Amino acid sequence: MSGPREEVEQRRRFHSRTLTEERAPSGPRAALALATLGVVYGDIGTSPIYSLRQAFTGVTPVAVDMVNVLGVLSLIFWTLVIVISLKYMTFVLQANNRGEGGIFALIALLRPWRGLEKRRRHLLILFGLAGAALLYGGVIITPAISILSAVEGLEVATPFFTPYVVPATIVILILLFAFQHKGTARIGAVFGPVMMLWFLVIAVLGAASIVQTPSVLKALSPVYAATFLQHNGWAGFIALYAVFLVTTGGEALYADLGHFGPWPIRYLWFGFVLPALLLNYFGQGALLLRSPAGTVQPFYHLAPHWFLYPLVALATAATIIASQAAITGAFSLTNQAIQLGLMPRFRVTQTSEKVRGQIYVAAVNWVLMVATISVVLMFRSSSGLAAAYGAAVSGTMIATTVLAFNVAREVGGWKRPAALAFLVGFLSVDLIFFGSNAMKIPYGGWFPILIGILFFTIMSTWRRGTEILQNQAAHNAEPLENLIGEIEKNPVARVPGTAVFLTGRVNDCPPTLRHHVLRNKALQEHVVVVTVLAEDVARVIHDERIEIEHYEQGFVRVILHYGYMQGVNVPAELAAGKELGLNVDLDDITYYTGNQTLIPSRKEGGMATWRDRLFTFMARNAMDPTDYYHIPSAQTVVLGQRVRI
């Protein structure tokens, strides 16, 4: 994540001409809006299936009476207004990194490689990593709770289907994960129309119920929210975990910013999605006022009996879309972590020739499948999963608020009073919801927190281990000019061809190059030293991708800049370098990479032994450099060395 000190100035020069900017969306607005609807709003759009009922049927339910129904509805309304409409739509979406959003975009905007306020920044980045780690816990639960809640609608039709709900959910999940390697390009075209139909249907069902009981609209007043909390006391505070479920998907709104831009996300929310959600929530509330017996499944009881099976089918399709968005989001999250140096290299497969963001990470896919099926078998109902869901999401939202505050101060230029008002106002709301969800840790909230701890340990250990190796490399480093000077004084045999040496350091001689000359007493006529830098921007445009510096004795240094949303392809960049005077024959290149055998040790300033072993295990199982850099294995020579950490 943070490079050696001598690389800082190189990065600063790069970032002086790589400014944060907001990319304009492309394509027809109607098509873009439809695509946004299908990808962005699946998670938050399917929350009405299980959110409202949880307050009245969860592990600590409140009574179904007028005070409680109107109070919960009022809390839902103002939660959507404050958390989603104000916090995310109005403020957080402004914190973009060249148009990209998400918690890693916030971390990157803070430019963690800077040496300024080192200790404070280190703690801040670790806090951001904790929020990112909790996202994985939410991603695991999203497909489980979404699909399970949809299939549970069959129980409303007839108890006959009750024994088959869990098996059917598992079958759908297996099929969903099994088809991930094919990508979403083919089925993505139907996401938008299906979700548009979904929001129209739930809006109509809710409106029809409100017409029968219009008094439910009194819940728009915040007085009923206050009355609910005062009337129920501690039980009302605990019930906030159910209210918070209406915001699940808020992080997805922000993370998908780079795919569509801010305007379709905002306009669709205020003009279509929010009205549809409110109509449905208030329609469910009206139903509960008329018929408290509908508490178990108020969403499905909104539908007339003849429409129940079509509604279950539509809900299943919508939840599959929501799950698909969560899974692909996990792939993107992992790819960003790899590029930022927070995770070992995994094989990332591009599944679309046209859309760069459509990727597949096999290791993540199968881990998610096993974990998701496991939580279905553990909790066996959407009500059980709901108790576990909010803990991860609320923790991530706290991290987003804190990081956004710092970005507003450092990048946005906000004055301290305005930034503090943002921090205190929204962080207070986040902490209240987190406190309520914390009460559910014994009932399942422990699971996403455990997943978050696991991923935080992985990311922080990989980051720290990488820093230790970089510091060791800096201690033993020598300038490339030293080797060139030695070759001038004591020439070695030069053979035809081009040698490409990959190194992570900008100004130094690669250890593999020194080792090659020392042992073989020979060197190719042309030597290219390539350094790939992962910048703290989402994407680096082609004109700023490559830097070339020519030296004596046929040496050339090439620096490649990539954003954390981009893949690396060294041969393609070498070919593109011809425009800048880099003339190499790709078929006549020999690539040299280093293979470090890590030996855990108790060195001063290092990590604990168990973290050394974890880092060594991850490094040993990381993706081969030839695959990561897309260099041909037949033209690659691997030089090994033993390193103590």
Draw up the topology in text.
Layout: H1 6-15, H2 29-40, H3 42-45, H4 51-57, H5 66-91, H6 103-109, H7 118-151, H8 153-157, H9 165-178, H10 185-212, H11 222-232, H12 234-238, H13 240-244, H14 250-255, H15 257-260, H16 262-290, H17 298-301, H18 308-339, E1 348-350, E2 359-361, H19 362-379, H20 382-410, H21 416-438, H22 446-475, H23 480-489, E3 493-503, H24 511-520, E4 522-534, E5 546-550, E6 555-562, H25 570-576, E7 589-599, H26 609-620, H27 625-628, E8 636-644
Parallel strand pairs: 3-4, 3-7, 4-6, 7-8
Antiparallel strand pairs: 1-2, 5-6
Helix pairs in contact: 2-10, 2-16, 5-11, 5-16, 6-7, 6-20, 7-9, 7-18, 7-19, 7-20, 7-22, 9-19, 10-16, 10-18, 20-21, 20-22, 22-26
If you had to describe this structure to a student in words, what would you say it looks like?
- This protein has 645 residues and is α/β, with parallel strands linked by helices.
- It folds into 2 domains: 6-465, Amino acid/polyamine transporter I; 479-644, no CATH class.
- The chain has helices at 6-15, 29-40, 42-45, 51-57, 66-91, 103-109, 118-151, 153-157, 165-178, 185-212, 222-232, 234-238, 240-244, 250-255, 257-260, 262-290, 298-301, 308-339, 362-379, 382-410, 416-438, 446-475, 480-489, 511-520, 570-576, 609-620, 625-628; strands spanning 348-350, 359-361, 493-503, 522-534, 546-550, 555-562, 589-599, 636-644.
- A hairpin with a 4-residue loop joins strand 5 and strand 6.
- Helix 6 packs parallel to helix 20 (382-410), helix 7 (118-151) crosses helix 9 and helix 7 packs antiparallel against helix 18 (308-339).
- The longest helix has 34 residues, at 118-151.
- It is elongated, with a radius of gyration of 27 Å.
- The two termini are 18 Å apart.
- Residues 1-27 have low confidence and may be disordered.
